[in-house]
């Protein structure tokens, strides 16, 4: 192998490693912004939160729930406008009971980068607490696609498949924040 070949090979490896790190941060940022209460400093309303989430998506992105449980719950949304409308319904003021806590835990990560595209799989768990005291624990498999657009990684597809949904005892959590101060100065 010539020096030029070695350098080209090392550059490809570095770009792959950087792509994996960028995709990992992108997926984690999405989950972070979806947590309730939102831990992002300066994000005190859901409209701003949704704007930040939408900044993570490609214009032609797809968001879909698949499998026997999620097909009827989430369906398939194509394009940022449709995805935005989904989040607006999710955090809308008419949602009753209101969501008071939701936290995402990611595990079993697998990321594969191929040039300007990538695929990532995770399993995630998420407790949900509602304003009426009801609660549940959700687990899903994620199989997401990412695309580098003008040098910036974006979510091209969010695909989630239910693993399980388990109701938790009413009022099982008696200590949780009403607002996050984690990122506040």
UniProtKB/TrEMBL annotation:
Please identify the protein, giving its name as recorded: Ketosteroid isomerase
Q: Which UniProt keywords apply?
A: Isomerase
**GO MF term (any one):** isomerase activity
Q: What is the lineage of its organism?
A: Bacteria, Bacillati, Actinomycetota, Actinomycetes, Mycobacteriales
User: Locate the SnoaL-like domain: which residues?
Assistant: 16-159
List the Gene3D superfamilies hit by this protein, alphabetically: 3.10.450.50
Q: What is the organism of origin for this protein?
A: Nocardia donostiensis
Q: Name one Pfam family in it.
A: SnoaL_4
